[in-house]
Amino acid sequence: MKISRSIEITVGLFVALGLAALLMLAMKVSNLAELSNGGSSYEITARFENIGGLKVRSPVKMGGVRIGRVKAIGYDSQKYQATVHMTIESQYDKIPTDTTFSIFTSGLLGEQYVGLEPGGEETYVKDGDEISIKNTQEALVLEKALGQFLYNKASSGGSESSSGGEKSP
Amino acid sequence: MTDLLAHLGRWSLGFFERLGRGHMFLVSLIAALPQLAVQWRLVVVQIWSTGVQSLSIIVVSGTFVGMVLALQGYNTLVDFGAAESLGIVVAKSLTRELGPVIAALLFAGRAGSALTAEIGFMKATEQLAGMEMMAVDPLRRVVAPRYLGGVIAMPLLATIFTAVGILGGFFTGVGMLGVDDGAFWSQMQASVTLKEDVFNGVIVKSLVFGAVVCWISVFEGYDAVPTSEGVSAATTRTVVHSSLAILGLDFVLTALMFNK
């Protein structure tokens, strides 16, 4: 069977268009560009009291710039601490060892991320390092903060009324 | 009473017989596929008639689906001050659900019905029987290239649909509604993953849909009652059964792939 050349050409164009669309989805829409970028990275682990709503693949930011991602989250049942494994891109290799790792929320409804506030040490964290709980700050849990606030309010209000109660008779 | 039971029995026997025939047909169809390696041009023609011919409807509807998604998403998100997340809404819903599902529904209506009608009329006009007389297996010569062409065309169409839809969403969101350009793409890139959303969502789903829709289409055509009414009924059944299969399978696939 002889098929016309124009059919072959349009099919070729169609397949090329499909592949171009796939390439666009891969490079522009998903995170392939970022993964293939350099490729080399190193891993560190931080211990937290409470990680709040942090998830795998949440960003790790330093000064607002994303320098890595959360790779895995675990729980150390011996010490009752959450462990967060992070991959940091190897170009960001100057993180002082006394850096504070905190869990922040971007915006009111935004996602949670690990925020790094660099300290003043001259030594830097290396691949496989573990950041102890002293240098981390747990996530702000809204209910806890609210409870604390109400408790403070009540106790200060209560002391006033009780002192008033003592004086009045 | 016994009439009713007999009726039910006849109906279910017919149903299972047809289901069995469909599967036997699929097995012999798959057995015929390797033959196509030497007759690749037959498949190219079918990619042209199922894929390229469906391109216009896929591109136009993809654009509008993306545009309306951005419009609706924006109206909801702006109340929460999260209009920048529009990129995530558009990209995630297109890659995971709307892209493959709507593309497959359109494909079933545009290409699947054409496959059934074509094969059904070949049967009605005894072309298939004529081929058999000449010792040409119609399954290999007619059915298998159509099946393979459709299965190849479907993921390409779904990918194009998704990409065009995201561009449509970008056009509405950024161009018309004034969402920030950088935030639109960067939030999208931060939350859409290549493996889960693009590969599992678009490619795997559309491959499954393509295989099932093409199977239903060629089987209905091959199994049609060889009259005008028979072919017409078979074409209707193709569209109905394909659409139901797509929506049902979509639920199963979503439950398997995205259920954490």
Précis, in short:
The complex is a heterodimer of chains A (169) and B (260). Chain A is α/β, with parallel strands linked by helices.
How are the SSEs placed, and which strands pair?
The complex is a heterodimer of chains A (169) and B (260).
Chain A: H1 5-29, H2 32-36, E1 41-48, E2 59-62, E3 65-76, E4 81-89, E5 100-105, E6 112-117, E7 130-131, E8 136-137, H3 142-167
Chain B: H1 2-32, H2 40-50, H3 55-77, H4 86-124, H5 127-133, H6 138-176, H7 181-191, H8 194-222, H9 228-258
Helix pairs in contact in B: 1-6, 2-6, 3-4, 3-6, 4-6, 4-7, 4-8, 4-9, 6-8, 8-9
**Beta-strand fraction estimate of chain B:** under 5%
Mean pLDDT of chain B: 91
User: What Rg of chain A, in angstroms, do the CA atoms define?
Assistant: 26 Å
Which sequence of SSEs, written as H and E, runs from N to C of chain A? HHEEEEEEEEH
Counting DSSP E segments of at least 2 residues, the number of strands of chain A comes to 8
What is the N-to-C order of secondary-structure elements of chain B (H for helix, E for strand)?
A: HHHHHHHHH
CA-based shape of chain A: elongated
Largest sheet of chain B: none
What share of residues of chain A is helical? Answer: 25-40%
Distance between the termini of chain A: 112 Å
Order of adjacent strands in the largest pleated sheet of chain A: 7-1-4-3-2-6-5-8
Helical element count of chain A? Answer: 3
Gyration radius over CA of chain B: 21 Å
Categorize the overall geometry of chain B: elongated
Oligomer description: heterodimer
Largest interface: A-B, 32 and 35 residues
N- to C-terminal distance of chain B: 49 Å
Roughly what percent helix of chain B? over 70%
Structurally, the number of domains of chain A stands at: 2
